Amino acid sequence: MPVNVFLILGMGLLVGFISGMFGIGGGFLMTPLLIFIGIPPAVSVASVASHIAASSFTGALSYWRKNAIDLALGFMLLGGGLIGTMLGVWLFTALRALDQLDLVISLSYLLLLTSVGFLMMVEGLRAIARSRRGHPLPLRRAGMHTWMHGLPLKVRFKRSKIYVSAIPVWLIGLLMGFLGAIMGIGGGFILVPMLIYVLRVPTATVIGTSMMLTLITMLAATVMHASTNHLVDVVLALILMIGGVTGAQFGARLGQRMRGESLRLLLGMLVLAVGIKFAIDLVATPSEPYSIRFEETAR
Amino acid sequence: MTARALLVLAALLMSLAPAAAEKLIVSLSNHRVLVTSSFTGEHLVLFGTIEPDTVRGSVRASYDVVATVAGPPATLRTRRKDRILGVWINDASREFIDVPAYLAMLSNRPVADITDLDTRRRLQMGLDNYILEQRVGADFADTVENDPFRAAFLRLQQAHGFYRENAAGVTFLTPTVFRAEIPLPATAPTGSYTVDVKVFANGQLIVRGDSALEVVKTGFEQFVAVAAQHYGPLYGLFAALMALVAGWIASVIFRRD
Fold first, then answer.
1. Tens digit of each residue's pLDDT (9 = 90 or more) over A225-264
2. What is the pTM for the complete model shown?
3. Which residue in chain A has the smallest CA separation from B193?
4. Cβ of residue A62 closer than 8 Å to a chain B Cβ
5. Minimal Cα distance from B233: which residue of A?
6. pLDDT tens for residues A188-227?
7. With an 8 Å Cβ cutoff, are B76 and A295 in contact?
8. With an 8 Å Cβ cutoff, are B156 and A290 in contact?
9. Which strands sit side by side in the sheet containing B42-51, from one edge to the other?
10. A149 reaches B (C-beta below 8 A)
11. Alpha carbon of A105 to those of A118, A134, B114, B191: distances in Å?
C-alpha cells in the first residue's frame, strides 16, 4: 500500500527516540501509530514484530558485551514465550477469519495501556512526592517473601542470584509471547516490572534478559506471521527499523540525563494517552461504518 | 438445432449490421503498465476514431461514447460496524463475488442523457447499472440499486479510486475523433483489464470496440509480492534476518563502550 516513506521514517525516528529515552522497545507506540495513519492493524502488528526484533537485538548485543544477560533465565522464559507466540499467532489467524481481529487488537491495547499507564503514572507521582520528602523508595525490597515463593519446581538462577519456582517463569514467558504476537509489542514495559516485582530479578540483569526474550519471541512472531497470514511488509519494516534504531541512540542520550521518577511519570502519561485514544476510537461513531476486505483476486 | 442456428444468425446480423454502417478504431497509449516501487498511478490515454458510413454519415447529428474499463475480477467483503454494548463492532457482512477490482465508466456526457434506462441497464452503463454479484445467504444475485451494502461498496471503492464514473471523461477532438483518459491509481490491482467502447447515435448503440491492457508488478515490487504470498516461511526468515542485520549494524555504528 502506498504510504509516505518520510512519514514512516519520521515515526520510526520518533518512536525510536522515545524507546531509547525510556529503555523500552516502543512496539506499544509504533503499532498504534501505524494503525492511526491507516495501515491495517493486522499488517501493523505483523510488521512491527520485525522492527522490535531489530531494536532489541541492538540492545541485547550491548547488554551481552556487558555480561548483563542471565542466559538460564532467558531460555526458561523463552520456553514459555515460544508457546505463547504460537498460541497468539493461531488466535490472530482465527480472529482475522472472523473479521474481529481489529476489534480484539483495539480492545487489548485499550485494556493494557490504560491500566499499565495509570499504574505507572501513580507510581511515578508517588516516587516524586517521596523523593521531595527526602526518602526515595528502594527499588528492590530484598528478603521479602510472597506466596510465589511457596510454589514447587524451584530453580536456582546463578547469574541473577535468585531461587524461584519455574512455574511463574514459564507463565510470564507465555504471556509475553502471546501478547507480542497478538498486539505487536515486545512488552518490555510490562516484562521488566514483572521480572523485578514477581521474580525479584536484580536490575543488573533484568533489562538484558528481557531484551533477549523480546528478540527471540519477536523473530519467531515475524516468521510465523509471514508463513500463516502473509502480512509482514518488509519494506515497511525496513523503514521502521532504520528510523527506530537511529532515533533510539539520541533518545538514550537524553534519557540518561533525566531523573528516573520523571521518566516513569512521563512514560505513564504517554501510555495512558495512547490507551485513551483507542477508547475514543472504539466508542465514537465512525464516519464510515462500512469497510471492504479483499478476499481473493482471481487471476 | 435450427432455432439455435437462427438465433446465432440473428445475433451475427445484429452485431454485423451496425458495424457495416460505422467503423470504430480504438487505440491505447500503453497496453502494459509496469508497477515499480515508485509507481504513483498513471493516466492511460485511449484514442478512438469513428469512421462514418459513407452513405448515412451526413445524417448523424452527433456521436456519444461510453468507455468501460474493468480490472481483474476479485471477491471483496463489505462489512458493517454496529454499536454493540457501546462499542463499534464489525457485525453484518456481504460478499461481492468476482466483481472488477477496478472499474471506470467514462463518457462524453452523463449516460442518462445518452440513452434510455432499459438500454443502460442492458449494457451496464453507469455504476448504478453495473451488475455486482453478491452472495446473499445461499443465493447469488445483484440487489436493488439502493441496497445499503451495494451503496457502501460503491462509495468505498470510489473513495479509494478503484471505481470511477466520469461524465466528462471522453472528449471529442473532432466530431469523429475522441480521446479518453483512464486514470489508474497507485494501488491499481494487477492483472488484465478490458476496455469496452460503445458508440451511440440518437440513443442507439451503433458500434462497439474493445481493447485490453495489463497491469504488472516488476522488479523489487514483484519480487516482494510473490515472495510474501508464495514463499511465506522463507520470506519470514528473510524478514527476521533483515531485523538481525539492521540491529547489528546499528550496534556497530552507535557503539559507545
1. 888 777 777 788 888 888 887 887 787 777 777 776 777 7
2. 0.68
3. A299
4. yes
5. A227
6. 778 887 887 777 777 777 778 888 888 888 888 888 888 8
7. yes
8. yes
9. B23-28, B42-51, B177-184, B170-174
10. no
11. 20, 42, 50, 33
The CA-to-CA distance between both ends of chain B, in Å, stands at: 90
DSSP tag of A137: P
SS3 percent helix, strand, coil of chain A, rounded to 5, is 75, 5, 20
Q: Among B75, B80, B249, whose Cβ lies nearest the Cβ of A296?
A: B75
Residue carrying the nine cell digits 491495517:
A40
Amino acid at A77: L
Q: Check B244 against A54: CB less than 8 A apart.
A: yes
- Between B82, B87, B247, which is nearest A283 by CB? B87
List chain B residues with CB under 8 Å of A107.
87
Selecting from B72, B76, B233 the residue whose C-beta is nearest the C-beta of A299 gives: B72
Provide the 8-state DSSP code for B114: H
Average pLDDT along chain A, 299 residues, taken 10 residues at a time: 74 83 76 82 82 83 80 85 88 82 84 85 82 61 56 70 77 86 78 80 78 85 80 81 82 73 80 86 77 59
Instruction: Report the C-alpha gap between A120 and B51 in whole angstroms.
Output: 78
**Where does the pLDDT of residue B148 fall: very low under 50, low under 70, confident under 90, or very high at 90 and above?**
confident
Task: Write out pLDDT tens, residues B117-134.
Answer: 888 888 888 888 888 888
B35 vs B193: CA distance, rounded Å: 14
Look at residue A222 and give its three-state secondary structure.
helix
